[in-house]
Amino acid sequence: MLNAGNPIGVMDSGIGGLTVVRELQRILPGEDIIYFGDSANCPYGNKTSDQIFDLSCNMLRFLGDNGVKCTAIACNTISTMADRLRPCFDYQIISTLPSITSASTYLTCYTFADTLSKGITYNKHDVVLEFFTDAACTDPVAKWAETDGKFTVTYSSTDTGESGMTIEMTADGLKEMNTAVYSDASMVNSGYSDCTLRITYAATVNSSADVVYGDNGNPNEVVLTWKRTSQNSYDTLKDDAKVFTYGLELTKLFSDGKGDFSKVQFIMQNKIDGYYVKARLDEATGVYYVTDHVADKKDATRLVPTVKDGKGKILIKGLEDDEYTVTEIKTADGYTLLKKGIAVVISRKDASTSAAVDGKQAAMLADNGSANALVPLSVVNTSGFDLPATGDRGVWMYGLAGMLLMTASAACIIIARKRFK
Questions:
Q1: Which of 138, 219, 284, 378 has its CA 20 to 30 A from that of 238?
Q2: Residue 157 per-residue DSSP state
Q3: Residue 413 is inside which H or E element, if any?
Q4: Cβ distance 32 to 8 under 8 Å?
Q5: pLDDT band per the 50, 70, 90 thresholds, residue 418
Q6: What is the four-CA torsion angle of 385, 389, 391, 397, rounded to 10 degrees?
Q7: If we measure between CA atoms, which residue out of 194, 191, 170 comes closest to residue 182?
Q8: DSSP sequence for 196-265
Q9: Residue 302 per-residue DSSP state
Q10: Residue 125, Ramachandran bin (φ over 0: left; ψ between -120 and 50: alpha; else beta)
Q11: Residues 211-255: tens digit of each pLDDT
Q12: How far apart are CA 337 and CA 252, in angstroms?
């Protein structure tokens, strides 16, 4: 979780982005800024789109690891990849290596086969393997990147649309795992025996009708296969996890049933991380699917209700469990605009999900048989007008006008009485 005190990130392929930093310091003097200028790989202009994407993901991951609340892209070349730099999440696969005590127990195969549900895809070219002496992964021994030649990564897809990734140790990787010597290693064991292996990579939830929303989740299965020198057969270990994502169903009404829904606009902001929600509308179904998280309010998607049975509906899917503010920024002429944003909280705990709207528990709706998928809320606009936002002086002026009217009225009564007498 992030908060308003977290720094702002700025990324560029070199040092040119420092002009953006100076401008941010001018207009936001109280903000801390972390700048990542990738001078080691500059220039980006002669690189392929995949190379630019990989380098950009590395910068985003570094800034994310350092807790930035938002990131400004100060490079025109990188900005062309903005559609691919969508919200992603980090996966971790944790395993404990078997005991290795002699050449007969050396590992001759150590392979992970990972499968993601339909609608979730690997970012690719970002797999990192780390070895630790402890299960909590606090005492590191070694760290491998894909370019080190210690393992290979291949990608595949199934006929049903699932994505697959296989991580296989190379001969050099197996040799190090079997024979490496590190500080504080047991005299009995060899190599990285009994060490904890952590594999990290990133994947993206491509919000669409393919994704499961709510408590059913989106399965992620991983199978570990290994073999020793002394074995003729392979051992396997299977595990799975789930990725959860949610939606919001907003019902829009006018008190007299006559308002124009096409004039209504809402935006959503993540209250904790500070980003605004960007989404695409599926015209056929009337569903908005989250596609991006943006720092600037002007880039947020204006959510317009679709009309069904005389009611306006906004259905948006692809939200993470977190805190949001839903704000009405426009409504039909002749109707009052909501003065305050609506607080929506989605919480997942103990294998179940709950939601609250403005501090009150909300009974979440199911979606395609998956419970607790959508947060329901209703907004009713009444006919009327909004007082001008004149501030303290304006309030004083209205008060003065009221006092003058009361004084004039009292004077009329007194004069009338005098004349009557």
A1: 138
A2: E
A3: helix 391-420
A4: yes
A5: very low
A6: -50
A7: 191
A8: EEEEEEEEEE--STTS--STT-EEEEEEEEEEETT-SS-EEEEEEEEE--EEEEEEEEETTS---GGG-E
A9: -
A10: left
A11: 999 999 999 899 999 999 988 889 998 888 888 999 999 999 999
A12: 12
Contact residues for 355 (Cβ-Cβ < 8 A; gap 6+): 344, 345, 346, 347, 361, 362, 364, 372, 375
Residue type, 73: I
Phi, psi of 410 (to 5 degrees): -65, -40
How many other CB atoms sit within 10 Å of the CB of residue 404?
10
72, 191, 199, 295, 319 from 37: Cα distances, Å: 12, 38, 27, 20, 31
Q: What length does the chain have?
A: 421
CA–CA distance, 4 with 270 (Å, rounded to integer): 12
- Read off the pLDDT of residues 338-369 as tens digits, 9 standing for 90 and up: 889 999 999 998 778 999 999 999 999 999 99
Whole-model pTM above 0.70? Answer: no
Looking only at the bridges linking them, the beta strands covering 370-381 and 246-254 are parallel
CB-side neighbour CA atoms (13 Å) of 41: 20
Q: Is pLDDT above 60 for 389?
A: no
What was the pLDDT predicted at 202? 86
pLDDT band at 402 (very low <50, low <70, confident <90, very high): very low
Separation of alpha carbons 164 and 75, rounded Å: 33
Residue with tokens 């599926």: 282
Residue by residue, DSSP assigns 21-34 as HHHHHHH-TT--EE
**Could you report the per-residue pLDDT of 373-388, keeping only the tens digit for each?**
999 999 998 876 443 3
Show the tokens assigned to 285: 């179904």
